[in-house]
Every structure is written in structure tokens, then in C-alpha cells.
Input
Amino acid sequence: LLRLFSFSSSLKSSMPARISASLRIPLGRLDIPIPYGGLTGAGLEVEVQKTLALENPRLDFESGWAVGATLTAGLVLGGTSSPFRPFVTAAYLLEEQSFLLSIGLNLVPLFEVISLH
Output
């Protein structure tokens, strides 16, 4: 079962696939100080997703489309040793008229800095 963003797909198949197209737009390098760190950058990603299934011998598309946008900020706390990226994602499933809002924190850059080489 594939998902469009976090929406469950209604398409059930033994060979599902998801097609997506996205555009990433940098909103610029920033230098906005906050206590013990600063905001260093921001970006926006706009994405469209659709699911499909390959069943012998035809290709079925799900009738719904999902669109979404993610706003990400680059923050540094305690110098350059602790970067992290908070984000907000808004997604909309057109066919079912369902809306999703997700707020999160990407800590992967933090582990890249403290990993052993």
C-alpha cells in the first residue's frame, strides 16, 4: 500500500508505484541571530504525487492527485556543531478533499556532524 504524502492510497495492486514531481525553491541565505545560534537559510518545496499500478497487461492510475508544500528553515544552535532543520508540510488530497498539516524536526544534519570518520 503506497501513500501520497501521509494519505492512504485507495489503489490496491501487487505492483504499485508512485509518480511525483517537485520543485525546490531556495528562499535565500539568511543571517538572523537568535539566542545561542541563528537562522541560516530557508527553502520551499512544492510537490505533486500520483499512484499507479501495473496489472497484466495494463497500467491503472488512481483518480486522485495529492499536492503539497514544505517550508524548511536552517537553524544552528551552539555554533556550527549543532545544525537542525525544522519544517512544516501542508498537503491536500484533491479527490477526497482531505487536508494534512505536519510539523517536524529533521535532525539528520546533527548526526552527520557528530558521526565518526
